[in-house]
Design goal:
Layout (H helix, E strand, L loop, with lengths): L3 H4 L2 H4 L2 H17 L15 H19 L1 H8 L2 H21 L3 H7 L2 H11 L2 H15 L2 H8 L4 H20 L13 H14 L1 H8 L21 H41 L1
Helix pairs in contact: 3-4, 4-6, 5-6, 6-11, 6-14, 9-11, 9-12, 12-14, 13-14
InterPro entries: Caa3_assmbl_CtaG-rel
Pfam families: Caa3_CtaG
Organism: Paenibacillus validus
Length: 271
């Protein structure tokens, strides 16, 4: 077995480039939503809680991509890989969208793009099936083994970038920062989130209930986890992704239901 503490350097454990990108985005966001907000059309002060969401999303992204979790997930533990993917696809996107004020969103994207192209890209049916379909396809053993083999480094970069972008697309339907592009009512969003949960079951079930190893890159679990066999690591990975997904979706459902209830009460009082 490889002794990770001796075989890998500090830069192998911590990716400074990922953190550099996070820090640059963080500084830019805090400047734009802070002292520079008056320079933008319709710019106004951003609530602290909204800024907190975006900052937290960046920190979680940095932790997923620039910490030892990334090295463990790409070379040693399937469960670490699934935790990393869960953070990037189910935690980071809703936090980032929730942290973008409407005026900033409209300033970044041209009006023609927002009005003509974005509604088609963010169509709920397209978004829900594209993300879940690609995520399930990615976890087919033959596809996954090829991507994670390292033979084509750009394949992994492309696959993970595509999955992140489609995750942002999927969450846009729920946490849309622009009221003009908010296509679904609260009740429809609740159904949309529930559908997302069901569509991921096949991929997770394949991993959780497999009675043999289905992914070649993770056949050797490191010795400092003596209680975790390679098969146990694989099954744990499926459990982690499903728990993370259900937990985040549960929070989203709670928020959506609360908003729907308040709107219904408000409409009744107006009558």
């Amino acid at each position: 077995m490889i002794n990770l503490s001796k075989s890998l350097t500090f830069l192998d454990w911590w990716n400074p480039y990922a953190w550099l990108v996070v820090i640059c985005l963080l500084i830019g966001y805090l400047l734009i939503t802070g002292p520079l907000h008056k320079e933008f059309k319709g710019g106004e002060p951003v609530p602290t809680i909204q800024r907190f969401y975006f900052v937290l999303g960046l920190i979680v992204a940095g932790g997923a991509l620039g910490s030892p979790l990334s090295t463990l997930g790409h070379h040693y533990l399937f469960s670490a890989h699934m935790l990393q993917q869960s953070l990037l696809y189910f935690v980071v996107p809703p936090l980032l969208w929730a942290g973008i004020p409407t005026w900033l969103f409209r300033s970044i994207l041209p009006q023609a793009f927002r009005q003509k192209i974005l509604p088609k890209i963010t169509n709920a049916i397209l978004a829900v099936f594209l993300f879940n379909g690609l995520l399930s396809f990615y976890h087919f053993p033959a596809i996954y083994d090829w991507i994670m083999s390292g033979e084509q480094p750009l394949a992994a970069v492309f696959a993970h970038t595509l999955l992140f972008l489609t995750a942002m697309q999927m969450w846009f339907v729920v946490t849309c920062p622009d009221p003009d592009l908010n296509q679904l009512s609260h009740l429809k969003k609740i159904g949309y989130v529930v559908l997302n949960g069901f569509l991921l079951y096949p991929a997770c079930a394949l991993i959780i209930f497999a009675d043999n190893l289905i992914y070649k890159p993770f056949h050797a679990v490191q010795p400092w986890f003596p209680f975790l066999t390679p098969l146990g690591d694989q099954q744990l990975g499926g459990v982690i992704m499903k728990i993370m997904q259900e937990g985040v979706f549960g929070i989203a459902l709670g928020i959506l239901f609360s908003r729907w209830y308040r709107k219904e009460r408000s409409d009744e009082q107006e009558e």
